[in-house]
TrEMBL record:
Gene3D superfamilies: Creatinase/methionine aminopeptidase superfamily, Creatinase/prolidase N-terminal domain. Residues 438-655 form the Peptidase M24 domain. This is Metallopeptidase M24 family protein. Keywords: Hydrolase, Manganese, Metal-binding. Residues 666-726 form the Peptidase M24 C-terminal domain. Residues 89-197 form the Creatinase N-terminal domain.
Length: 729
């Protein structure tokens, strides 16, 4: 699903101590090992520790092509109007009193550093017309540029008009955003970043910076090399000033309880684990801002973000209490009772900064994840901490000629200090317990039944000569999934791409602006669902006619890579980038590759993209795969303006029963969660080894065994036909 393009940045000092969970209803323990998440990325502002300075002079040849096919997404994100009017209006604000900047940076994220966000926070999409989930826009007084990664190069070409420069992050000769700013701005310029001036209600009570603390600090440091100044615009969001009345309202979906039979561990036990982590780290409180971490920790689910069952909230956990900062209108009586039983107090969403200030003034030592905590929280904590330190110093001066301020956990002379390290919740959430795994298995089988019904319908319609658009196909798949027990939503926008559209890695068809599904071209379908007990994500690529020899070769090599990763057995200390080459090696043999990671983590009835684990060629993620994690296996190949191929299953990391254990280290392997046929017509059998043919036949045997009891009639016949053994001619 929506393959990830992961940053290679890391800070090797951020490690967590091991944790163990014990469910009140199960004696099973879940062991988690030290990790470092580098999952969250911000194209344009993530750097390797050593990097060469690149010149902007190489960028003149990569201006985005004018597009007559700009995405139309409701009135709020309508990009059909000339983009230069929006840029002109934005630039006019640069010189207004109280602003005075030379450039403005517009990231993708909301105040919680979410990958997928509510529509009212899609500022970058509004100003640029580019709607991909990853990207950073930078506007100066005479230039506008947008950085995104390889998943979105073709989409950027289509959606950006000629006023924008498309920066293809990771390509040779393409500068980072800060390098570009240093090159195009005169020394001493001022670069603005934006706080969020939200809506009436709780949202108005706080200013939430869109930048994480470490991203803001990194940008500040990098542009200082040319004497540029980073300016925090406290009182106004410049994009909102242009968006005005057409900006969508804030989300207000009710929160629901995620039942213990699916969660596996109760709230009290999870909070007890978290407090033990605070003790080990020498902290007395933690601020949690990642929405999926809050949902997981409190066994809650929401509907504020499309496709992601989360709610906008902050959480503060101290050694004595737990406070959830959320819009109270979303809290049902059932949720209120659930939180009370877990010892959780409710506070207005907009009062989070007041709480941070209060904690700092008391000398509280906070655990802050710099990759997710926004700059507003970090700066509020620092400013209030400085006041606390000054007050202690003044108090001591009045009593002693040799003042010493000491309020650190070890008697150090300082004010309240933050422990800046990765959130301990990230890893705990990634390592699924037996109840979560069982829910994921069950959800995938029901999803497979829906897909069997869908493919039966689609093949029949195509063979009858029906003219179906990519949107028609996507909508029909949704209908089949909605018939399954426990269905809640899709887990991401369905990628339904015929022919050349399949080469756009994160393509999303729009009504009135999409293609007819062509029986003579490859068709790529990447989709997923949110069920009450699990999250699914699957990609299949098919041909309704006769594929070319080239298409079959490319498909088969992608399949070989998929098989190689699926069958991998590896030491328990192995990190994802080591496994990535397994999936690429068969493409490499003929000089082909793909521009995205091979696998991402997946939440249990949570976000379809989850860290800290990944399987990617980018070596910065040093998180080892661990028993209980779930990852995707999705190699692909994309021929620009021609076709796209991807084969994706979800995998559960399990213990491997190896004959030996060299060095006393255990070994791991994968268990399949996805059971949907892989089209045999696309396979060039002569390229496969006997072992690879056996793998495919065994997989299809499992598909029939597990899914056939859930379908009947024509869908059962389709499943039977598509799971028959492949025989070498």
């Amino acid at each position: 699903m929506r393959p990830l393009y992961l940053s290679c940045c890391s800070s090797s000092s951020r490690y967590l101590s091991p944790i163990t969970f014990f469910s009140s209803s199960s004696s099973s323990s879940l062991l988690a090992k030290p990790i470092l998440p580098t999952f969250r990325t911000n194209p344009g502002f993530k750097f390797t520790q050593s990097r060469s300075r690149l010149s902007i002079r190489n960028c003149s040849s990569i201006s985005a092509k004018p597009s007559s096919e700009l995405r139309k997404k409701k009135g709020s994100l309508d990009s059909s109007k000339p983009e230069d009017k929006k840029l002109r209006a934005l630039r006019q604000l640069f010189s207004k009193p109280g602003i005075g900047i030379d450039a403005y940076v517009i990231p993708s994220q909301d105040a919680h550093q979410s990958e997928f966000i509510a529509e009212c926070y899609m500022r970058r999409g509004f100003i640029s017309g580019f709607t991909g989930s990853a990207g950073t826009a930078v506007v100066t007084k005479d230039k506008a540029a947008l950085w995104t990664d390889g998943r979105y190069f073709l989409q950027g070409e289509k959606q950006l008009n000629s006023s924008w420069i498309l920066m293809r992050s990771g390509n040779l000769g393409v500068p980072t955003a800060s390098e570009w700013l240093n090159d195009v701005l005169a020394p001493g310029a001022k670069v603005g970043i934006d706080p969020v001036s939200n809506f009436v209600s709780d949202f108005d009570e706080t200013e939430q910076f869109l930048f994480s603390f470490d991203a803001a600090e990194e940008l500040k440091e990098d542009i200082a090399r040319k004497d540029h100044e980073l300016v925090y615009l406290y009182d106004v969001n410049l994009v909102d000033e242009i968006w005005k009345e057409s900006r969508p309202g804030p989300p207000n979906s009710p929160i629901r309880v995620h039942e213990l039979k699916y969660a596996g561990v109760d709230v009290v036990s999870k909070l007890s684990f978290l407090r033990s982590q605070l003790v080990d780290a020498g902290c007395s409180a933690i601020v949690v801002s990642m929405l999926d971490e809050i949902a997981w920790l409190l066994n809650l689910r929401g509907g504020d973000v499309p496709n992601s069952p989360v709610m906008y909230a902050y959480l503060v956990v101290t050694m004595d209490d737990t406070k959830l900062f959320v819009d109270s209108s979303k809290v049902t009586p059932e949720v209120s009772h659930h939180l009370k039983n877990g010892g959780v107090e409710l506070r207005p969403y907009g009062s989070i900064l007041s709480e941070i200030e209060s904690l700092a003034l008391k000398g509280t030592e906070l655990w802050l994840d710099p990759s997710s905590i926004n700059a507003a929280i970090a700066n509020t904590y620092k400013a209030a901490g400085d006041k606390h330190l000054e007050s202690l110093g003044s108090e001591d001066n009045s009593k002693s000629k040799n003042p010493k301020v000491s309020n650190g956990s070890s008697g150090q002379s300082w004010g309240p200090c933050g422990v800046y390290r990765a959130s301990p919740i990230s890893l705990a959430k990634a390592v699924k317990n037996p109840y979560e795994l069982e829910g994921m298995r069950n959800a995938h089988l029901r999803d497979a039944a829906a897909l069997a019904q869908f493919w039966t319908w689609l093949e029949d319609e195509i063979h009858k000569g029906a003219k179906l658009t990519e949107v028609d196909v996507s909508d029909k798949l949704l209908e089949f999934r909605q018939q399954q027990d426990g269905f809640i939503d899709t887990s991401f926008d369905t990628i339904s791409g015929s022919g050349a559209n399949g080469a756009i890695i994160h393509y999303r068809p729009e009504p009135g602006n999409c293609s007819i599904v062509d029986s003579k071209k490859l068709f790529l379908l990447d989709s997923g669902a949110q069920y009450v007990d699990g999250t699914t994500d699957i990609t299949r690529t098919v041909h309704f006619g006769e594929p070319t020899a080239h298409e079959k070769e490319c498909f088969t090599r992608v399949l070989q890579g998929h098989i190689a990763l699926d069958e991998a057995v590896f030491p328990a200390t192995t990190v994802g980038f080591v496994l990535d080459a397994f999936a690429r090696s068969f493409l490499w043999k003929i000089g082909l590759d793909y521009r995205h990671g091979t696998g991402h983590g997946v939440g249990a009835a949570l976000n379809v993209h989850e860290g800290p684990q990944s399987i990617s060629f980018r070596y910065g993620n040093t998180t080892p795969l661990q028993k209980g994690m779930i990852v995707s296996n999705e190699p692909g190949y994309y021929e620009d303006h021609a076709f796209g191929i991807r084969i994706e299953n979800l995998l559960h990391v399990k213990e491997a029963n190896t004959k030996y254990r060299f060095g006393g280290i255990g070994y791991l392997a994968f268990e399949k969660l996805t059971f949907v046929p892989i089209q045999k017509k696309m396979v060039e059998v002569s390229l496969l080894s006997d072992a690879e043919i056996d793998w495919l036949n065994d997989y299809h045997s499992q598909v029939w065994e597990k899914v056939s009891p859930l379908v009947e009639g024509s869908a059962s016949q389709w499943l039977w036909d598509n799971t028959r053994p492949l025989v070498r001619q």
